[in-house]
Amino acid sequence: MVTEKHGGHWTAYYDPDTNRYFAQIMYISREGLEQYNYEISQDVFARLGTFGDDHDNIELIKSAKMTYSFENTMYGTLGPERTVWDEEAHASMKETVKKQKEKAEKKENKKGKKKN
Question: The whole model's pTM is what?
């Protein structure tokens, strides 16, 4: 089963342990780094990546519930602005990303050992 999908400026994750779906939009604009996290539905996750234009994928993600925002802009404040609307969802997404990375590292290590 697919647990991760990628686009130009977005990544979506599925956590089979909690049966939850998350998406992250991240890019650098002329103002600075911008990151937005969303809790998405299974339907949104299934549709992601099926559009010819990445903008359509991003608009689909934006239709979901935003859980976290990070904007390090040159306007308004001297430091980074962070807003978390849903602490629990934000923590769950961070844990999901961590698990995905650990699985990918284990897979890479197994490939490396087979070659030797």
Answer: 0.79
